[in-house]
Amino acid sequence: AKAAGRNSVRFFDPGLLEQMRARAQLEGELRRGLVQQELLLYYQPVVDGGGAIIGAEALVRWQHPVRGVVGPGEFIELAERTGLILALGDWVLQAACTRLARWAGRPGLDALVVSVNVSARQFRQPDFAARVRQALRASGARPRQLRLELTESLLLNETEETIAKMESLRAEGVGFSLDDFGTGYSSLSYLKRLPLDQIKIDRAFVRDVLGEPNDAAIVRTILALAHSLDLQVVAEGVETTSQLEFLRQHGCRAFQGYLFGRPAPAEALEQALQPAPA
Ligand code: C2E
Ligand code: CA
Ligand code: CA
Ligand code: CA
């Protein structure tokens, strides 16, 4: 047994091998899916205090030929690890801008702001700003209606280059939002340094805002801080009217969550905002 142990290669237990195979297969399929245009964007409404739709977040889905609609939880991480996120991210930007351009001039849809999630690897490309500009120019979408959502971890090691990228797009009107606020490394000092327009309170805090005094305190603090820095705040994951009431009472004026609408194909938003003629 000792000799066998020394001479045979036993790196893989079957479970691990299986996992690697599944991952490699998923990667191949995602690569193919990108080429075959199997990705699509869902849109989730962002509403104001009165429930009026003021914007939407674009959320990627994969219309898999066999598995049906697959959520980003099952492929974004893989895309990031393999670099596929660069092609995927470009596609998302282009698709969102194309949608914005199509909405131009249509009553109810004309002024919507569309938020797009940007992954760290995508943002770090030296030509990221040029890629965003290209998506805007090719589609004819107005920069003021595009908002890019960045995460805290992406901005953690923020550099002069990060700020320069943001500033150059911002000069043209593109907005920036800090996503999942409160979950990450939350150095509050960068909030002041970075050229942000908006922060999004993570739904982990919104969820228990009525039952957990700590979460309530965090939410109140974020709202007060954001207002003193002149940042817009969106509360994510609003599911109940009591959560909404709490948030409103503490000065929040924009909301996103199942209470107002789940992510759905663009047509659903178009229908909600453009009632069929009588
Ligand atoms: P996120 O940016 O924090 O997006 C919000 C997620 O919360 C979405 O999940 C949305 O469906 C979900 N959500 C919204 N309202 C509620 C609610 O009231 N209750 C609950 N329980 N959930 C709610 P989704 O669409 O599965 O996206 C998951 C994550 O995948 C996103 O989190 C984002 O980090 C990432 N993602 C989505 N689309 C893209 C994309 O185009 N590019 C990149 N890089 N990442 C994306
Ligand atoms: Ca987001
Ligand atoms: Ca979020
Ligand atoms: Ca999140």
TrEMBL record:
<protein>
    <submittedName>
        <fullName>PAS domain S-box-containing protein/diguanylate cyclase (GGDEF)-like protein</fullName>
    </submittedName>
</protein>
<feature type="domain" description="EAL">
    <location>
        <begin position="23"/>
        <end position="277"/>
    </location>
</feature>
